């Protein structure tokens, strides 16, 4: 029976495959396997060879259990119970060779394993062994948790333990992420020692695929930090933020609250849905930007024409503006800036409500966008009667997903080109380096022209800058911004809507810089706890401005107040001699950094045409070994670009800007020399915004009232 037990032991000595990594767009780690250990207690005396100096089995189980209870989450008495149950199954032909301790004895860290071994040696405890294993590692904690999901160890009916994705990308791409274990066949004696001159037959392990996301770890961290602060200050029921590149559809960040730690599942509620994709909402007045776009495209928009604000009746239904009485006779432009529901009704009169619904379908509402994430919802556009089409024009009744709102808004931000959102960049086989899936930007048929998109952006910007605008507090320091606020009622499960202070879904869908948007961000805050003098748009604005200002600076988008006098478009130096390129860059006031030994420039960063301030770093890649520059003050994005072009092993700790480097300037390094950089985030100062009174602030609760 010892031979049989040892055979089992040998079968477990497989070549373990690693579960695939999940990384961000720059190769920064989001999820991976890390080394862990499984604890085994050898009970059989037959494990100890006659004449051995030290026993290979547990000679004093009580003492061993006492020791282990200090290091693993299991009481001494429970361990003894496990031992006793195992021993009770012994017969004349069967003897318990070894036992394990369930979940408590798995996923043991390297540090804990060493501590147990050291304590066992000091106290004379024998017979404890550790089997190398894998554990899923999430180094960033609460980080895009509902997008990434989690994987955990599971034991199947045959007793085999493996890591299985249970939620999010870990579950959706479980098959791709799961590797195939290898094995090593050999012959042993009864004690498990390999016999001399035995040939080993090795089948190599095949690691799981690497999934590279469009997510930018730095921007995602800006989102997580801002959400943590707002959560602590306002304690809302829910929050959601999605940050997108409107020119490509790439999702740079996606997070929601409540959130959880994927390693421990701490904070995980009964909601397992990714709200950006799998949940629908009534969007409120953010929908008005698409009503406006439809009217402009139909040439039914006259910004200076006037209408009577306050209320509008259709058949037996009356809708009202937020203040119920309106602002008298005002222009359509002012009506949009004030987020007037009644202005939407008159726009529908001009272009036709059925025409409007066709535009909404052209924007992709009412059907799935086809994002590379599971269980996407489609939402419902209400189109049975005129009153439903009317309330839809200002975001009530019909439902959408946040990702639909993002897709539709790309048409406005991207000069009439609507881009499909996506979150997977590529899937790579690490065993062959072959790219098995390469997701590209995909343009969708757009219902509006470039000219319409530009007009809409100008009007969206006016909601921030106009005295009548509802979006004043969403202004950014150094960047022009445009967008639309929203305050939607929350439907009850049994019909009707919630009522009372703060019982609304507050939102903002905005883009910047408004002339050529580089980022599109959607922020939702549901039922925040508001104190006297606070408005529902306050937490939304705090999220939006913090995330956008930090992200635009990180992306090296030049603030507009510097642009006209201080920026210079970068020339194309690819194919030119590096000496000439460096001289030309210095003459223009830039700070060129050479990668390689010089000669022909193979690539540059930033690219041709990028507008840069003087003293901005420009990277020039050539062939040969690289001499380290002084990284002090470099942004994380610039360091990542240097790492990509140079191929050096540069390791980053922290976010923000470089404050320390492990190897000094001038060191000649190869790809085998690790360089560690320490980064810190500077405090970002925000300019206080003008106080907005309750009437113009635009807490636009949409309602339909029987007339």
Number of strands: 33
Unreliably modeled segments? 1-12, 684-707
CATH class of the largest domain: Alpha Beta
Helix content: 25-40%
| Count of domain modules | 3
Count of helical segments?
21
Rg is: 31 Å
Question: What CATH architecture of the largest domain do you see?
Answer: 3-Layer(aba) Sandwich
Class by SSE composition: alpha+beta
Beta-strand percentage? 15-25%
- Assigned CATH superfamily of the largest domain: DD-peptidase/beta-lactamase superfamily
Summarize model confidence as the mean pLDDT: 88
What's the end-to-end separation, in Å? Answer: 88 Å
General form: globular
User: Major beta sheet, specifics?
Assistant: 7 strands, mixed
- CATH topology grouping of the largest domain: Beta-lactamase
Task: Give an overview in words.
The chain has 707 residues and is an alpha+beta fold. The chain folds into three domains: 2-213, Penicillin-binding protein 2a (Domain 2), CATH 3.90.1310; 217-261 and 274-555, 3-Layer(aba) Sandwich (Beta-lactamase), CATH 3.40.710.10; 562-680, Trypsin Inhibitor V, Chain A (2-Layer Sandwich), CATH 3.30.10. β1 (22-23) and β2 (29-42) form a beta hairpin. It starts with a helix and ends with a strand. 42% of the residues are buried. It holds the Pfam family PBP_dimer. It is found in: Membrane. Residues 433-452 are annotated as: Disordered.
């Amino acid at each position: 029976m010892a031979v049989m037990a040892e055979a089992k032991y040998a079968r477990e000595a497989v070549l373990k495959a690693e579960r695939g990594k999940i990384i961000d767009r720059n190769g920064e780690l989001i999820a991976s396997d890390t080394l862990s250990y499984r604890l085994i207690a050898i009970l059989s005396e037959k494990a100890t060879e006659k004449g051995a100096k030290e026993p290979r089995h547990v000679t004093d189980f009580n003492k061993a259990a006492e020791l282990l209870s200090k290091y693993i989450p299991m009481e001494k008495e429970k361990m003894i119970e496990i031992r006793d149950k195992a021993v009770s199954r012994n017969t004349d032909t069967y003897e318990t060779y070894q036992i394990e301790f369930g979940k408590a004895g798995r996923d043991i860290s390297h540090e804990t394993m060493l501590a147990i071994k050291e304590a066992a040696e000091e106290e004379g405890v024998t017979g404890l062994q550790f089997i190398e294993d894998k554990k899923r590692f999430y180094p960033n904690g609460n980080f895009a948790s509902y997008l990434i999901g989690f994987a955990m160890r599971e034991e199947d009916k045959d007793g085999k333990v493996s890591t299985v994705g249970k939620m999010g990308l870990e579950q959706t791409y479980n098959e791709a992420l799961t590797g195939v274990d290898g094995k090593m066949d050999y012959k042993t004696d009864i004690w498990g020692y390999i016999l001399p001159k035995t040939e080993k037959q090795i089948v190599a392990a095949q690691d799981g695929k690497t999934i590279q996301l469009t997510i930018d770890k730095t921007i995602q961290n800006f989102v997580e930090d801002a959400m943590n602060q707002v959560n602590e200050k306002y304690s809302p029921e829910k929050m959601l933020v999605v940050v997108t590149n409107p020119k490509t559809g790439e999702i740079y960040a996606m997070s929601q609250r409540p959130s959880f730690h994927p390693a421990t599942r701490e904070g995980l509620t009964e909601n397992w849905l990714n709200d950006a994709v799998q949940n629908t909402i009534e969007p409120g007045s953010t929908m008005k930007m698409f009503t406006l776009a439809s009217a402009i495209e139909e040439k039914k928009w006259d910004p200076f024409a006037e209408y009577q604000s306050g209320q509008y009746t259709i058949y037996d239904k009356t809708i009202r503006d937020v203040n119920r009485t309106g602002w008298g006779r005002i222009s359509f432009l002012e009506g949009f800036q004030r987020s007037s529901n009644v202005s939407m009704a008159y726009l529908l009169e001009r272009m036709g409500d059925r025409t409007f619904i066709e535009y909404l379908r052209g924007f992709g509402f009412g059907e799935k966008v086809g994002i590379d994430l599971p269980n996407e919802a489609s939402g419902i556009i209400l189109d049975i009667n005129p009153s439903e089409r009317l309330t839809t024009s200002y975001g009530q009744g019909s439902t959408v997903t946040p990702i639909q709102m993002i897709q539709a808004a790309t048409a406005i931000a991207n000069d009439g080109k609507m881009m499909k959102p996506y979150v997977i960049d590529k899937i790579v086989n690490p065993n062959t380096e072959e790219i098995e899936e390469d997701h590209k930007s995909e343009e969708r048929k757009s219902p509006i022209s470039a000219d319409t998109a530009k007009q809409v952006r100008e009007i969206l910007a006016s909601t921030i800058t106009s005295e009548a605008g509802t979006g004043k507090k969403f202004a950014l320091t150094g960047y022009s911004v445009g967008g639309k606020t929203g305050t939607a009622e929350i439907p009850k499960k049994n019909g009707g809507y919630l009522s009372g202070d703060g019982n609304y879904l507050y939102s903002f869908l905005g883009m910047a810089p408004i002339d050529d948007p580089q980022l599109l961000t959607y922020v939702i805050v549901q039922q925040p706890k508001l104190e006297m003098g606070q408005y529902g748009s306050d937490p939304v604005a705090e999220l939006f401005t913090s995330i956008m200002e930090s992200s635009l600076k990180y992306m090296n988008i030049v603030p507009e107040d510097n642009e006209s006098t201080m920026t210079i478009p970068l020339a194309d130096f690819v194919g030119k001699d590096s000496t000439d390129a460096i001289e030309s860059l210095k003459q223009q006031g830039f700070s060129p950094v050479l990668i390689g030994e010089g000669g022909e420039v193979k690539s540059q960063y930033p690219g041709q045409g990028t507008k840069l301030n003087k003293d901005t770093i420009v990277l020039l890649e050539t062939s040969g070994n690289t001499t380290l520059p002084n990284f002090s003050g470099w942004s994380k994005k610039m360091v990542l670009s240097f790492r990509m072009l140079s191929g050096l092993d540069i390791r980053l700790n922290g976010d923000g800007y470089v404050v320390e480097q492990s190897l000094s300037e001038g060191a000649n390094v190869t790809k085998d020399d690790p360089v560690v950089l320490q980064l810190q985030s500077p405090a970002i100062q925000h300019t206080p915004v003008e106080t907005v009174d309750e009437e113009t602030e635009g807490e636009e609760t949409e309602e339909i009232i029987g007339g």
